[in-house]
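Researcher: Structure for this, please.
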Amino acid sequence: MRTDAEENRTRILAAAREVFTEAGASAPMARVARRAGVAVATLYRRFPHRDQLVAAAFAGQHAECTSVYAAALRDPDPARALLAMIRKVCAYQVADKGFTAAYTTALIARRGMEQQRAQAERVVTALLRRAQAEGTIRDDLRLDDFWLLLVGNAGIIAAAGTGAAAASRRYVTHMLRSFDTIQ
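Model: Predicted structure, token format:
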């Protein structure tokens, strides 16, 4: 790749992370291009679809989630793995609100970040089934409950302001208690 093309790509991704953090993943592509100092045509040449730009802008965060998912699948205790994974993913939501906004939007709309969502669904489903088979997680929990927890956590983070980390931990703790088979 030419040096100027790589510089444009780097500026576009940095601008996209900033704009998506400020205005959500549905922010106008022209705003991203302006912030990056490139023409809209340049942005679309590099990223023909918004979903591609969103995924590329948050590739680092997704890589972190991927390592959490892999560790969870290696854990011999599926309930412990599932709960630890949820805590870590929710902590990532606090740490990077731009990723949280993009991911939550993709979850709610079921549009965008398809590969990331599919990977999470495979891992959560596998852990849920294993834990339910062992009787350590409630039988009535479904994949949708995982998404609800993440979307709820995003709402808590958005509403809590400077107390987001503590509010998120409290929320997640309460929600995970409801996963237990002992009520």
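Researcher: Any notable elements?
Model: The radius of gyration is 18 Å. The chain has a mean pLDDT of 87.
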